[in-house]
Design a protein that fits this description.
The structure is a single chain. By secondary structure, the protein is mainly alpha-helical. It has one domain (13-473): Hydantoin permease (Orthogonal Bundle). It contains 20 helices and no strands. Helix 6 crosses helix 7 (180-195).
C-alpha cells in the first residue's frame, strides 16, 4: 500500500461485488432515470448500453494494469532496482513472497494481495507530464465527488424533515429556532461526524456499512419496480406507443455526462480488488456490477411509508460511497506527498506523539481528504456547476482515458521486459508482440487488441465534444 500502514483485510468475491456496486449506484445512478426519460426510450437504451459497455471495457483495463504493475514491482524487487526508472535500490519489502506465490525469475504478471492506488500505478507507468495530468484529474474529480455527496445527503434529509413550500423557495422557516439553511448546516455537521471517522480506517472496515447499504438499495430497486408494474397494470402514465414514439436526441449529450458519472468506479478498483480472496472471480464481479443498471422514474407513491423510504434512498446510497471515495483520495494524497518528499511514508503506528498534535500528525492525509468537501458543503448548497464539470471532464478522464493509457504503457513496458529476458527468442522472427508471446497474464483484459484502445480514446474525444457543445448551449 502506498504510504504503508496496517495490512489490509480480505473478503469474498460477493463482498467485492457489494463494494463496486455501491460505488456505481451512487449519485450518478440517481440521475439516470430523469436523463433517460428526457432522451427517449430508443436513444436512451442504445446510449446506455454503449456507455456501460465502454466503461466495462476500461474497468477490465484497470484489472490488467493492476496485475501488470504488481508483476513489475515483483520483478524490480528480484533485481533490486526501482520499478519506475530502473535505478538500483534496496529490495522492496512491501511485497512478500507469500503475496504472489513462488518467486521464480520468469516474468509472469500475477495479481498480488497488496493494496494499490491509481497514483502508484501512474507513477510507475507514466512520464512526468502524464503524472501531472493524472494528479490534476483525480484530485479535481474526487474532491468534487465528495463535495457533491456532502451536499446531497444533508439536502435530502432537510427536504424530508422540512419540505420546501414551493419550487422557487430559497430559505424558509422550519421551526421557531431553525430555518431551512440552519437545518441544512446542522445536517452537514452531523454527516461529517458520523461518516468522517471511516476515513481514518481502511476499506474493509466499512464492510458492514456496505452490506447494509446494498440490502437497502436492492430493496429500493425492487420496490420501485413493483410500484411501476402496479401503475402500468392500472393504466397510469403514458401509453406504450407514446413512450416509444417520444425521442429527443438533442439531450443525448447530457445523458452522456450523467452515465459517465454513474458508471464511475475506476478510481477505487485498485484498492477494492486486491483484498478479494478468489482472484479468478474478479472479471465476474466487475461484469455483475455493471449489469445492475436502473432506469425507472417516480412522481408519487401510493403508500406514505414507501414514499419516505424511497426519499431516503439517496441518503443510504451516497453515505455508503462517501467513505470509500474519501479513503481513495487519502491514499492518493499520501502517495503524492511521499513521492514529493522522496522517502517512504511511515506507518501510522510509528508516530509516538500523543494528544491533539499526535492525532493531526498521524491522520494528516485523512483530514486533508475529508475537511475541504465538508467546508464547501457547509457554505453552499448549489453544486450544479461542480456536478457538470466533475462528471463530464475529470470523471471521463479517470474512467476512460487514464485506464486506457495505463494499459497501453503497461503493455509496452512488459514487451520491453520480455525482450530483455529472452534476447535469443527476440532474434527469431515470430508473429505478435513480445508481451503477447511471452507473458501470460490471466487477468488480461479480454479486449486485448490495440484497436480497442483507439476506439475508447476516440469515443472519449467525441463525448467531450458533445458535452462541451451542450454546456455552451446552456
Amino acid at each position: 500500500m502506498a504510504g504503508g500502514g496496517p495490512s489490509i483485510g480480505s473478503y469474498s468475491p460477493l463482498t467485492g461485488f457489494v463494494f463496486i456496486f455501491n460505488l456505481i449506484v451512487g449519485a450518478g445512478a440517481l440521475t439516470i432515470p430523469h436523463a433517460f426519460a428526457n432522451v427517449g426510450l430508443i436513444y436512451g437504451s442504445i446510449a446506455l448500453s454503449i456507455l456501460a459497455s465502454v466503461s466495462y471495457v476500461t474497468a477490465t483495463f484497470m484489472v490488467e494494469a493492476i496485475a501488470g504493475v504488481n508483476a513489475l514491482k515483483r520483478r524490480a524487487r528480484e533485481l533490486g532496482v526501482d520499478a519506475a526508472n530502473g535505478d538500483e535500490k534496496q529490495p522492496m519489502n512491501e511485497l512478500s513472497d507469500s503475496d504472489d506465490g513462488d518467486a521464480h525469475t520468469e516474468f509472469v504478471p500475477l495479481m498480488v494481495a497488496s493494496e494499490m492506488e491509481l497514483a502508484e500505478m501512474a507513477e510507475l507507468l507514466f512520464n512526468h507530464r502524464g503524472i501531472v495530468a493524472f494528479y490534476a484529474c483525480i484530485t479535481v474529480y474526487l474532491y468534487g465527488d465528495l463535495a457533491i455527496y456532502a451536499v446531497a445527503v444533508p439536502k435530502s434529509l432537510r427536504e424530508i424533515i422540512c419540505p420546501r413550500p414551493s419550487a422557487d423557495a430559497v430559505v424558509w422557516e422550519c421551526s421557531d429556532k431553525f430555518n431551512s439553511s440552519d437545518l441544512y448546516r446542522l445536517f452537514v455537521v452531523l454527516f461529517g461526524l458520523l461518516l468522517g471517522p471511516f476515513t481514518f480506517g481502511h476499506v474493509h472496515k466499512t464492510r458492514t456499512l456496505q452490506l447494509v447499504s446494498t440490502i437497502i438499495r436492492h430493496a429500493s430497486f425492487g420496490l420501485m419496480i413493483v410500484l411501476a408494474i402496479i401503475g402500468i397494470s392500472r393504466g397510469h402514465g403514458r401509453s406504450v406507443a407514446d413512450v416509444v414514439s417520444y425521442e429527443k436526441p438533442a439531450n443525448i449529450a447530457t445523458f452522456f455526462g450523467v452515465c459517465i458519472y454513474s458508471f464511475m468506479c475506476h478510481h477505487s478498483v485498485p484498492g477494492l480488488v486486491a483484498p478479494i480472496t478468489d482472484k479468478s472471480k474478479v472479471g465476474t464481479v466487475l461484469a455483475s456490477a455493471f449489469m445492475d443498471v436502473y432506469t425507472l422514474n417516480f412522481k408519487n407513491y401510493p403508500v406514505q411509508a414507501f414514499g419516505y423510504f424511497l426519499s431516503l434512498f439517496p441518503v443510504f446510497t451516497l453515505s455508503a460511497s462517501f467513505p470509500l471515495i474519501c479513503i481513495t483520495l487519502r491514499e492518493n494524497i499520501r502517495h503524492l506527498a511521499t513521492n514529493m518528499n522522496g522517502s517512504s511514508a511511515p506507518s501510522d503506528a510509528a508516530f509516538p506523539s500523543r494528544g491533539l498534535y499526535g492525532f493531526l500528525e498521524t491522520n494528516m492525509y485523512a483530514l486533508v481528504a475529508l475537511l475541504p468537501p465538508l467546508v464547501v458543503a457547509f457554505f453552499t448548497e448549489d453544486v450544479s456547476m461542480l456536478v457538470g464539470f466533475t462528471g463530464a471532464y475529470a470523471g471521463l478522464g479517470i474512467q476512460w482515458i487514464v485506464p486506457t493509457f495505463l494499459v497501453f504503457c503497461l503493455r509496452r513496458r512488459l514487451a520491453t521486459e520480455w525482450k530483455q529476458m529472452h534476447p535469443m527468442e527476440v532474434a527469431v522472427t515470430r508473429p505478435g508482440p513480445p508481451a503477447a508471446r511471452g507473458n501470460k497474464n490471466r487477468f488480461a483484459s479480454p479486449f486485448a487488441h490495440q484497436s480497442w484502445l483507439y476506439m475508447v480514446l476516440a469515443f472519449s474525444v467525441v463525448s467531450v465534444v458533445l458535452i462541451t457543445i451542450t454546456h455552451g448551449m446552456h
